[in-house]
Amino acid sequence: MTSNHPEHLTLDEGAGVEPTTAPEASVEPTTGTGTVEEPRSSTPTAPSHPEQDPLRGSRTGAFYAATVGLGLVLILVVVFVAQNTASTSVSFLTWTGEFPVAVVILVAFAAGILFTALGGSLRIMQLRRRAKKVEKQRRKAAKAAGR
Q1: In terms of domains, do 105 and 66 share one?
Q2: pLDDT digits (tens, 9 = 90+) for 90-137
Q3: 106 and 135: one domain?
């Protein structure tokens, strides 16, 4: 049986013992199994487990924040393109052409992002390979020590 008051004992159902009112000190049950709830403090405390915190971040919240952030970036890009419509001459290897300044800068920006992502991805793959190797060596050493 479970009581809503912190001064009562919480016992498993079927233990055959009714809850009793506990004085200020905790009283351990003499029959059956159960737990004694401690009196609750009047000051709020942070939850001991972050997964129980109702205010923690969620995937939906992160998605919303990312969507708002990308929307703001898109607005800035549109303003940038609208203000930089003048054409400029661009030459790359054998290609030559006239393009708006905004297009040239945006293409250069996109290329920079792609090269950065490529370098970061290669580094992540390298670190994962190294971590697998270390984990394999650790398991092998633990297995050898256990024999």
Answers
A1: yes
A2: 888 888 999 988 888 888 888 999 999 999 999 999 999 999 999 999
A3: yes
Residues 76 and 134 in one domain: yes
**List of long-range contacts for 103-109, beta carbons under 8 Å, 24+ apart:** 105/80, 106/77, 106/80, 106/81
Query: Are 5 and 36 contacting, i.e. CB atoms less than 8 angstroms apart?
Result: no
CA angle 130, 133, 134 (to 5 degrees): 90
Q: How many domains does the chain contain in total?
A: 2
Q: Does 45 fall in a domain?
A: no
Nearest to 86 by CA among 110, 62, 102: 102
Tell whether 67 and 28 lie within a shared domain.
Answer: no
Decide if 89 contacts 98 (C-beta within 8 A): yes
146's tokens: 């256990």
Neighbours of 11 (CB within 10 A): 22
Secondary structure element (H or E) that encloses residue 99, with its range: strand 95-100
pLDDT range class, residue 42, cuts 50, 70, 90? low
The whole-model pTM stands at 0.45
**Domain extent at residue 76:** 59-146
